Amino acid sequence: MATNDLLTASEAQEPGLPTPPDDPLAKKWAGRAGRGRKHWEKLRKRIEHNRKKVAGFCWDKDPATQEFVDPRANLIFATAQATLPNIYARNPDVSVTGTWRNKDVRLFCETLETVLSKQMRMAKLKSRMKMSVLAAMTEYFGIVKMTYQRDIERDPLITQRINDAQDNLVQLDNLIQQSEDPQSRGDAELKKRELEEQLRGLEAQSEVVRSEGLVLDRVLPENLIIDDGVVEFDDYPNADWMIQEVPMARGRAQGLYKVNLSKAKAYKPIAHQMGDGKNGRGTDGGGRLMSGEMQQSGDDDEVICILEIWDRTSQLVYTMADGCNFFCREPYPVEKAGQRWFPFFILPYAVLPGQFVAPCLVDLTEKLQNEYNGTRDKFAAHRELNQPGWIAAADANMKTLKRHTDAILGEVVLIDPDGKPLNQVIQPKQSIPVNPADYDTGPIRVDWEQVTGLQDAARSTVVQPKTATEASIMQQSLSGRTAEFRDKLEDLLQEMDECAAQILLQELSPAQVERYTGQHKMGVAPDPMNPGAMIQVIEEPAYDWPQLSRGQIFDMVEINIVAGTTGAPDKVQAQETWAKIFPLVQQLLGQIMQIAAQGGDYGPLEALLRETLHRFDDRIDVDQFLPRPAPTVPPVAPGAAPAAPAPQAGPVQSDPSQDPMAAVQQGGQVPGAPAQAPTLPALTQ
Asked: 350 and 453 in one domain?
């Protein structure tokens, strides 16, 4: 992009940004946002408390002291970290099936699987979902926002944008406006220097000017306001509206929306990462809205709150700044959205009937952790009281006593007891008896196991199970504890993949799909319309990407998440399963090959093989084990001799006429068998 065009366009603009007039509809939405904040205020405070509890840092303490980390044993954090790899350790396996039974859509399903997996991986699905799982355990909800990035001026608000030059252009436009503002003459030289640096970076073209694709944003629970009319959690996709609060620097917002936002309310971005010495609260610019105190206006670096309002009733998206009664941009409909209109996908830790919020891991274990650490702290204090010491008579000779207490190992100390027995002059201090029952944490651990479902064997205290009982405990405990939570996660991932597939089918062109699958295998064939001419034809298609209407897309695709594919893989269990299933599969395949060689019907054995593999592991694709149908041999004209095959170097092959199984293994036909009899590909000798 030529920088002279940008400068010419900026010179034609009048200094200063326009201030739109107040809009009654914007004022109405501002009131709804205020009521929504009040409705969820207690939940926001509890989330803030939970974060501090799990982190355990005391930012008002000296980092070099032990008091900087509050709990002696942070059991909540350890439990969350131990649970995470069993819930989400890798991206799930996606299975796409077509609902059109009268058409072969297998290649289309394979193409969609490839494109969907690639787009999700590029959108950093794994890191987003792992953080969402942790958020659900400690903050009640993990929220992911899915959008498609095209044009920064037309897209919904995206926090984690794909790297391109659009952000730089917004900042450049902001610098141009500031350099022409008469009120900013005092910083003219600084603005000019920043403008020159931006122009030099754009001229270098270090980034792609415009990128597009799926984008996944992590949304903090306190930054999403849900319609307070929603009672149960499962009804949130049917809410009338949702409002996302997006922290943004005032200068960047003005450069993006081209309106004057000097009246917007300035916020202090506060996060529990670094403190200012007061109650552990600190400012780090991390983008979390915690305090709405007004600051001195006029600074382009101060943070304001942009409200992105998703109204399901009108199917429009409104954008406004908190504190302003006008919209920053014209309300717009979402182009090429999925069947699920809201882009927010929420993962709960638990659900309860009749209310939106259910207890999270912190609520279930906070008192138990406090009791455990209190018991351990008291036991440590008791040990401190029982340090070794001596008790001496009040009239004892201090010089003699000091010689006794300072004696080294093996030294003989001479003491004058003044005619008294030695034990009446000095003797060891007696320890305060310890009652083990008073400091026993066994009942606390039992309660912990009851509320978390995580037993000692599954908490990795048994790293390598020594007995079959311990191994069974590990497997059963992990399955029982994570089954429900993982089921919620897989349902959410399936909704996300369905929505992503619907968006991609509308957004991507066949040329864009070709970047993921490669080009078709092309060949030449006679032109039926022009005898003697040759045309280029597709010998082997690499992809199938139909151009369909929006309604056809919603009805055509059915996407499933393969159960159990998000957790950490268990190689030992997988090897044991395969060792059990291999002899059965081998025997069934041998029988199928024999029946296929004789031209018989092996359908019952195929059904038995499918059921057997499904019982062991439903992730196995049965079709890759079955024989492939033989290619149809063209009929030979009467009186014409068949062409002799060209001689090939190599080991001597068996005569197919004498060995039917050899004919099947070599990909040929069995003498006397029907032409459509299934055969196996040639095996390497």
From this structure: no
